[in-house]
Amino acid sequence: MNRKIGRLSLFVAGFFLLALPHPTLAQTPLFNPQTKYAAGTATGPSCIVVGDFNGDGKPDLAVTNFSDQNVWVLLGNGDGTFQPARSVFVAPGGGFPWYIAEGDFNGDGKLDLAVTNYSDNSVSVLLGNGDGTFQAPRTFPVQSNPALVAVGDFNGDGKPDLAVSNVGSNTVSVLLGNGDGTFQAAQNFPVGPNPWYFAVGDFNLDGKLDLVVADYGCAFACTVSPSNTVTVLLGNGDGTFRAEPQLIVGNGPAGVAVGDFNGDGKPDLAVANFNDSTLSVLLGNGDGTFQLAQTFLGVGPEPQTVAVGDFNGDGKPDLVVPNYGSNTISVLLGNGDGTFQPAQNFAVESAPVFVAVDDFNGDRKPDLAVANLHTLNISVLINNSAGSAVVATPTFSPGGGTYTGSVTVTISDATSGATIYYTTDGSTPTTSSAVYSGALTFTQTTTLKALAAASGMTDSAVASATYTIQQQQQVATPAFSPGGGTYTGSVTVTISDATSGATIHYTTDGSTPTTSSAVYTGALTFTQTTTLKAMAAASGMTNSAVASATYTVQQPSLTSLTLNPSSVAGGPLGSSTGTVTLSAPAPAGGAQVTLSSSDPSVASVPASVTVPAGATSATFTVNTSIVIVSTTVTISASYNSTTQTATLTVTL
Fold first, then answer.
1. Cα 418 from Cα 394, distance rounded (Å)
2. Cα gap 478→60, rounded to integer Å
3. What is the pLDDT of residue 1?
4. Is the pLDDT of residue 529 over 90?
5. What percent of the chain is helix, strand and coil (3-state, nearest 5)?
6. 306-326 burial by CB neighbour count: b if 16+ within 10 A, else e?
7. Which of 67, 452, 605, 638 is buried most deeply by CB count within 10 Å?
8. Which pLDDT belongs to residue 463?
9. Which of 517, 449, 528, 533 is nearest to 488 (CA)?
10. Given a cut of 50, is residue 14 above it in pLDDT?
11. CA–CA separation, 530 vs 484, rounded Å?
């Protein structure tokens, strides 16, 4: 759809809210007149993403231009102005690059780009060099006619993943990141007809990212769309999603954004309805469901996308909408209760399709960058609101909810340099409260509240969330069979656990086992005294207690040595059979009994004889030589520090 090109800027992973000053009584325009910047060699700027691509601490712009097949980067000067655009990517084979997102895909601390190529059904990843330039693209296939691309950690492994809407196949593709700049094969999830735009948020507050997809209903811009729905996909936390009942909005839902529009801490939705030129607002219930849509009139014709920011600094989220059917954008100031004031319109270039929100001049007020599809130019509008800025409200990750065993929470704030203060006893935090310095772990139900403060700015609103902790069930203590005790020779021990699927870890050196100890895989045989200890672990449960048993292993002793016969005539035919007997069965591997003769020249014996494992005796042969006088020879057998003897008389 040539006209529906863009990306929902900055709002793909939850609530984005730059706090601004309270408006003065004078009706000063919220934004200065546009400044235009060329972003292409042909008409067609379609999407903008903001990031610090050269590492100088100043926001830069990356712009897709579907007509000239390029991605252009405009480096920021930090004062609201930008350097001339430079091409950093040309789509291969006429791929029509339409949408763009940023993230650190290989973990090197340098921002990278992801670009959808509408015509060749792929996503190109450009790894950043940290100086505003990028490496050659790596391309990953998705489904038919990819549109919006967004970044999020959809499987909770700490590595950024990609989500892509596919207009031609009515799906969303999810590509899990490997953390090295590459991505796994796309998983595809069905949604409504012709999805162009979507947003990311945690709609049921379970700490797992979800998706909301606007089902436009036409492959290209149409006068009346067959669709008036958005599709919610709740995340399972492993990179897969499950569909919820579709939500009813206006005709031809195009863009969708996420914000807390009524201040209840639950994510809400704003939907731009392209064909009936309205906005739908759906207040969230915090469980993945939403209230019926409220409709707001008065935006310009054919609103393409929608973005969120606090443009007048009252701590309440506002909306900005590019109106494709006119040369304007509409700003609707929020009342903080889920309703919005009449639109204020600001002039831009022809056919605005996308707006990005960020602070381009460092005054802590959100400015706008607009992609104008039917010109060469993007428009930059600098925020003109007066007064001291309000620090952004802190955000918690994960959000409040019910957790098992414990939960570790981080607090962040969008205002650079802000100090965060928090309480965990239910009281309202002040700048005298504890200063946040690192992740907080809760093992019992806790209400966390936080505010942020920064020099020269108004303190933020207070963020609050309750974390309900359910205690984990403990894994059963491992059992040994047989139990500890005294055994002769050896003992073979098996370990079992009553908890299905539990992994058993053990030690045999007397130390206490942990989940880093050896994993039990089969029976253990002890041939010497051993103390066995074991514990068991299972996912989602508390580790078991430690089981311990001592196995005292006594080795058998040599109880007798007999010779039969005890008197033989010397010579080849004169031999005797010796028998060694143990006090108990021989251990595994057998018992080696050492043999000797007091006169080997008369009566010789082998160096040793082995009693087989489990047996109590073994025999050997005493060979004799011819003698001229009767001779008595002593035969000795030794085992485990015990020696037995017998005499053999060798006669003429």
1. 10
2. 59
3. 45
4. yes
5. 0, 45, 55
6. bbbbbbbbbbbbbbbbbbbbb
7. 452
8. 93
9. 528
10. no
11. 9
Kindly write down the DSSP assignment for every residue of 123-164, as one continuous string: EEEE-B-SSS-BPPPEEEE-SSSEEEEEEE-SSSSSS-EEEE
Residue 55 in tokens: 């590492």
Residues 70-81 pLDDT 10s: 999 999 999 999
CA dist., res. 511 & res. 514, Å (int): 9
Q: How far apart are CA 354 and CA 16, in angstroms?
A: 16
Confidence at 387, pLDDT banded by 50, 70, 90: low
Q: Encode 271-284: b = buried (16+ Cβ within 10 Å), e = exposed.
A: bbbbbbbbbbbbbb
- Alpha-carbon distance of 359 to 457, in angstroms, equals 15
Query: So what's the pLDDT on residue 12?
Result: 31
Measure Cα distances from 280 to 147, 293, 357, 574 in Å.
Answer: 22, 6, 20, 113
Q: Is the pTM of this model over 0.85?
A: no
The encoded tokens of residue 520 equal: 């039990």
Cα end-to-end distance, the chain, whole Å: 118
Kindly report which listed range (228-237, 242-251, 472-481, 585-594) carries the lowest average pLDDT score.
Answer: 585-594
Tokens of 482: 């047989």
Spatial separation of the C-alpha atoms in residues 467 and 622, rounded to whole Å: 83
Task: With CA atoms as reference, report the closest residue to 186 among 92, 122, 114.
Answer: 122
Q: Which of 126-130, 184-188, 463-467, 643-647 has the lowest mean pLDDT?
A: 463-467
More confident of the two residues 444 and 174: 174
Distances from the Cα of 78 to the Cα of 39, 103, 360, angstroms: 19, 21, 6
Tokens (6 digits) for 51: 């990031």
